[in-house]
Structure formats: C-alpha cells, structure tokens
Amino acid sequence: MKNHLRYGYASLLAVMVIIVSGCENFLNREPLSDLTTGTFFKAKSDMRVWVHGTYDELQNALIGNNAAALEWGDLRSDNYGNTGYGDTRVYMNAIDAAQGQWTWEYLYRVIDRCNVGIMKFPTIPSVTPADYNDYLGQLHGLRALCYFYALRVWGAVPMTLEPWDGETAEKANLPRTPEAELKAQILSDIDKSIELLNSDVSRKFYFNRAAAWALKTDVHMWFKEYNEALTASQYFINHASIKFLVATATAPGYVVWKNQFTDPASSSESIFTMAWNQDPTGADGVNQWAQRVGASNTNNTYQVSRVIFNEFIARHQSKKGRDGRFWGVIDTAKIAYAAGARILANPPVYRVLSTNDYGRDGTTKCVKFSQPSTAQPDREKWQVLSTTTSTVQLPIYRFADVMLLRAEALNRTGNADGALTIVNSIRSRVGYTADSKTEVALGDVVAVEDAILKERQLEFMCEGKRWFDLMRTDNVIRVMDPVMRQRQIDYKVEVTGFGDPGRVKFPIYYKEFESNPALRGTQNPPYTE
C-alpha cells in the first residue's frame, strides 16, 4: 500500500502537468511524457509548468475526486438535507475511517509539489530571485493553505517540508505533528508568501498577496487570536480594488453578487478562486460538486436544507427587501410564477413563495455556480449544473469572508456595533435592508456572533465554510445536536443527539495506518483504525 506522503519529484514527474494557455487558464493540459530528474528543473520555464501542476493537484484535492471542500466543510452541517441518495453516515453523524473522502492523500500531493518547487527552483541554472520569488511565494501560500485545511479537518497531522526522495522510509513514515507546530509553520509560510509575492489581487485564479492576508486572518480566527485577526484583516480596509460590490441601474445587486461565481475575474469581491472544469480527474468522469448539491441530469445526493429555505422566505416576508441570494443559490424558477403569468404578463407576475414550497420543483438544487439560462434569461432562472458538463469556480477567499471574520473579531473585542455594520453591508448589497442592530442586543456577545454566523451561513452556502465556522466558534454541538435529534426521529432510530464530542473532528482514513507505521495508535477518538 503506497504511503500518501510519498509524492516527491521523482514520482511526480511521471504525472500529467499543465502547460498554460493564456495568463489565467491553467486548465488546458498536455502530457510531458519524457521527463526525468536529470532533464527537469533545468530551465526557467520549468518553474511555470511545475507551479501550474501544483494548482492542478489543488483542484483535484478540493473540488475533484471526492469534492473534499464540500465533504469537509459543508455536508455534515445544517446546510443540507438528504435527498435519499446521499451517504447516510454523513447525514446521521456516523462517519467512520473506512470512507475514502477522509483521505489526506490529495492534500499531501499538493504539499509535496510545493516542497519540491521550494527546494528546486533556486537551483535552476541562470535563474535569479527576480525569476523565482513570485513562484516561491505562491508555493509557500499553497502549502500553508493545505496544512490549514488538514489542521481543521484532523487536528494534528504529519508535517513534512522536504520532498520524499523515493527511497528514505524515515522521511515518509512520520508521526502526527502537534497543532502548535503546524500553526507556527502555517504562519511562517504565510509571512514568507507575503514577502515574496509580486501580485496583490490582479491574478484571482492564483494565490496572491491578498489571499495570504485573508488566510492569515482565517488562521488567527481559528485560534481565537482576535486582535491579530483584526490586524491582518486591516489590509482590506480601504483597499483600492477589493471592496463590496456596487449595484447599478443595469446590474442589480444580486446580478453583481452572482459574478463572484460565474465571472470571478471581474468581481471586486473576489480574492482567490479555484477554477475547475470537468475533466477525467473527477471520479468516473463525474463532476462531484454538481452531483452532490445541484445536478440537472440526475438526482443530487444532498439538498439545500429547510433551515436555509425558511430563512430566505422569512426575509422576503419581512417587507425589508428581497435577499437576492435566495434565487442566486436555490433553483426557485420552477415555482416562482403563477400559471401562465410569465408569458401573459409584462412584467411577469411572480407567485409568492412560502415555507410550504420547500422541496418542490427544483428547490433541492443549488445554482450558485450556474450561468443564466439562455432560454429564459429572467432574474430567477439559472441553468442547473450537469454532472458531465459543468464549470465550478470555487472561491477560496473573497471579501465578504474576510469581513465577516473581522466582524466576529470586532464583536469578541467589544465592538458589536462595528461588527453589525459589516453584517448590514453584506445584506444591503444583495437587496436585504433589515438593520441587524435592531435584531439583537449589542451587549450580548453570543447573540451578535449568532447573527454573524447566520449571515455567513446564507452567504457561503455550498462553498465549504459552514462546518469550519461551527468548529471555530465552538458551536458544532449546540447547533447540530437538535438537528441530529430531529434526523434520528425522522429515521425512527434511537435518539442520541450529536453523540461523542470527538466527532467534531474527522477520522483519519484507515489506509494511512496501513502505510505509515508511525501513525498507528493515534486515530482521532472515538473513531477506530
């Protein structure tokens, strides 16, 4: 059984890497079939190829294969209901170490590519720091991002900063590294990335300096270092080009908001987006993101939860504007019109939706990354993604993410008014005008944080954020215990609630223990190896 840490340059040179066509398209591939360690890393152009191969591995890790961004960050949360086709172990909090989606193999493939590049780029003949610094900055940033994902999912994980040479077992058989050491390395990589990167935010499909500051904010918030998070997020205050979207007469707020997912390169809120299109690296040639939460050609395995649907309905019934994220995230088109009204009326007449409409005619489908329909290009009609032909451009960081993290930090440092000002900005840009400051007592830290988390839940639906939000704020059991109890009642099984608090983390995939003796006996309890 191969060791999932063993992805040094000797083995990686045999895989397909990317030759870029266009400044921001790293999805067009050509095989480099005759590479050896003796011929590669000999020219400046090799750095470019290697870095884009690293992004290829990152997209495999997060939204290819097992759609890990959703599996780790969303699907266990209250964001989703089960359509009857999903994994009941995930839905019922009964996950175990036998499930392949808990493998860290693909993250370590990215990490080892970063390790190789960081080691090899400065040794290429005739290159100077001016040639390789920006590439190294990207690799340090991507390595920090991958270790941060790993830390949040499993806690302590093996840490390696050197490529495996294909021979030395001691370099591959590594024990779990304490979280404090992982944190120190992540922050070190982020700082190195900030030092080396040339680009601020102009390259939105590549790790850039703004992404590094966003990641730094996120890391400090994970460790409840609120003042440090405020310092890091200050980078974005009065930034020249990163700002909340602005609606115009020809582009309402919900349209401009949608551009973050359909055309992130043009969005003022985009910071770092992971581009993805369907190709053979997806399991069985299937787009895993679409298959899980919004497929037009089959039954998706999970559906937007009633909690989300009902909150949007409540906002529409409040007479305080219409929250455009409702139809920007959920396929409401099929139930939005009275019979024949769209054809007969000008402008069309929309049927008033209610909570009773949950689950009907498309409301189980997520359309967040869908383009407008060419057949019916009205404001509540989006194409639903197909599992065979679709594009997902997943935001890793965007402005609203950083600002709502900043709002949490402000609240935790005594500035609830400033925190809710940010919440109001998030709302108003998509058409919802309710003042959050009238909904909670400013002196109630928990209530203010709940309001922020609710806004994050609606804003980042289907982006892989919700579970980490609940973990970061120590709210998993408080939120999920009643959810799990209701699910257990619905399934007519013993009602035990969330269960062992250790299940907040994820199990280490059992094959890791078979291939790495140094891990044996260190599974996250209550899971077994």
Report on this model:
With 529 residues, the protein is mostly helical. The protein has a domain at 283-392. The chain is 42% helix and 3% strand. It has 20 helices and 4 strands. It has helices at residues 9-12, 44-63, 68-73, 88-91, 105-120, 129-154, 179-196, 209-222, 226-233, 253-262, 288-293, 306-317, 325-329, 341-344, 399-412, 416-428, 445-459, 466-472, 476-490, 510-515, and strands spanning 80-82, 270-274, 302-304, 394-398. Strands 1-3 form a two-stranded antiparallel sheet. This is RagB/SusD family nutrient uptake outer membrane protein. It is found in: Cell outer membrane.
Number of discrete helical segments: 20
Strand content: under 5%
- Taken in chain order, the helices and strands follow as HHHEHHHHHHHEHEHHHEHHHHHH
Radius of gyration: 23 Å
Which regions are unreliable across 5 or more consecutive residues at pLDDT < 50? 6-36, 278-284
Distance between the termini: 15 Å
Average pLDDT:
86
Number of strands: 4
Globular, elongated, flat, extended or rod-shaped: what is the shape?
A: globular
- Structure class: mainly alpha
Q: For the report, how would you describe the main beta sheet? A: 2 strands, antiparallel
Topology:
Layout: H1 9-12, H2 44-63, H3 68-73, E1 80-82, H4 88-91, H5 105-120, H6 129-154, H7 179-196, H8 209-222, H9 226-233, H10 253-262, E2 270-274, H11 288-293, E3 302-304, H12 306-317, H13 325-329, H14 341-344, E4 394-398, H15 399-412, H16 416-428, H17 445-459, H18 466-472, H19 476-490, H20 510-515
Antiparallel strand pairs: 1-3, 2-4
Helix pairs in contact: 2-5, 2-6, 5-6, 6-7, 6-8, 7-8, 8-9, 8-15, 9-15, 15-16, 15-17, 16-17
